[in-house]
């Protein structure tokens, strides 16, 4: 049941999506705390709220659809397999799948009660990581799961696969796991700092990759993750996510970091939000950054930003950014 909600103002700078009205006062939940987001194509974004809400746009943020996930809260991760097939996971080892963009859901037996922190899919092959060093693997788009041996017991925070064989998982105490056979065997490798809490991992190809974490941890590898080098960045504090595309690297945290030369130099990019950033995505020439209450996007490498989604706090209306207010509908 919906609690008292604030009005959602969605902004988008594309002229072709400049139609639509203001969202009604009772359209979207005010208790949405964004935990994860993923893009499945140009102009398309799926946003997961910890409290059990799924927000979806297919037109760059001009309109949003709201679906409810039948979970008791504690959702942490989302992945999209194909155009409308969605997998979410979270507290207590819970996994839910939907084949119709969130209109209907099926609860899946994951085989664990440990919290799952991240998901990643390559086609119908999927991996989930979480507390106690657990890694789960699915070969059928998330319908069934089995545990893979890892030989670690620390919490794992993030997982990424470049293809069906090459994958990496990271977590607390500088933990980095590497596989070259889809997770049948995971190898533990050492990083520069065994005290770091690693929170994000991404590879631009099977050899070149990045991990980030706390405090202000940025490491780079050029040999598929077998060895890592610490990279100095002009930022201290929390770093939560990384995305790379060739020599371009974006790191989200208390602020947004950007490198155009493979990490040799960095710039701090000003994003007009008052919260730490939890995710960053690169899709179709656009850079999207996500905070617990906002989604911003840039088409010019971070020089200018438009607010695609802004959730009002404690009943207040979110400030619109540049562009045109969009509308949201509840499913």
Q: Would you mind describing this structure in some detail?
A:
The protein is mainly β. The protein is 0% helix and 46% strand. It contains no helices and 30 strands. It has strands at residues 10-12, 34-41, 44-49, 53-57, 63-68, 75-81, 85-90, 95-98, 106-108, 116-122, 125-130, 135-138, 146-148, 156-161, 167-171, 176-179, 187-189, 197-203, 209-214, 217-221, 229-230, 239-245, 248-253, 256-259, 267-269, 279-283, 286-290, 294-298, 306-310, 324-330. Strand 20 and strand 21 (229-230) form a beta hairpin. It is globular and about 45 Å long. Residues 1-26 and 313-331 have low confidence and may be disordered.
The overall average pLDDT, rounded, is 85
Output the number of helix runs: 0
Radius of gyration: 19 Å
End-to-end CA span: 13 Å
Sequence of strands across the biggest β-sheet = 1-30-5-4-3-2
Give the CA-based shape.
globular
Give me the secondary-structure category: mainly beta
How do you describe this structure in short?
With 331 residues, the chain is mostly beta strands.
Features of this protein?
single chain, 331 residues, mainly beta, six-stranded mixed β-sheet, four-stranded antiparallel β-sheet, globular, disordered N terminus, disordered C terminus
């Amino acid at each position: 049941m919906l609690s008292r909600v604030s009005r959602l103002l969605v902004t988008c700078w594309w002229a072709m999506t400049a139609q639509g009205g203001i969202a009604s006062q009772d359209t979207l939940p005010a208790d949405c705390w964004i935990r994860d987001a993923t893009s499945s194509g140009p102009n398309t974004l799926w946003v997961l709220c910890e409290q059990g809400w799924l927000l979806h746009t297919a037109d760059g943020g001009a309109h949003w659809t709201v679906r409810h996930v039948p979970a008791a809260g504690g959702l942490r991760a989302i992945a999209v397999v194909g155009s409308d097939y969605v997998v979410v996971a979270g507290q207590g080892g819970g996994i839910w799948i939907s084949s119709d963009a969130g209109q209907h859901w099926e609860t899946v037996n994951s085989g664990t009660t440990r919290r799952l922190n991240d998901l990643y899919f390559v086609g119908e092959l999927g991996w989930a990581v979480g507390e106690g060093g657990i890694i789960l693997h699915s070969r059928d788009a998330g319908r069934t799961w089995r545990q893979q041996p890892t030989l670690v017991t620390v919490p794992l925070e993030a997982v990424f696969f470049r293809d069906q064989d090459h994958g990496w998982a990271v977590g607390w105490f500088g933990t980095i796991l590497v596989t070259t056979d889809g997770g049948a065997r995971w190898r533990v490798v050492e990083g520069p700092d065994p005290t770091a809490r690693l929170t994000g991992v991404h590879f631009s190809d099977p050899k070149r990759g990045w991990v980030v974490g706390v405090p202000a941890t940025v490491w780079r590898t050029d040999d598929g993750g077998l060895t890592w080098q610490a990279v100095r960045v002009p930022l201290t504090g929390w770093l939560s996510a990384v995305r790379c595309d060739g020599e371009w690297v974006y790191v989200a945290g208390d602020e947004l970091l950007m490198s155009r030369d493979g990490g040799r130099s960095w710039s701090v990019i000003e994003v007009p939000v008052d919260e730490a950033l939890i995710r960053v995505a690169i899709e179709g020439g656009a850079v999207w950054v996500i905070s617990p209450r906002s989604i911003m996007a840039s088409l010019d490498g971070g020089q200018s930003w438009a607010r695609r989604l802004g959730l009002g706090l404690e009943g207040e209306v979110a400030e619109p950014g540049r562009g045109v207010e969009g509308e949201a509908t509840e499913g």
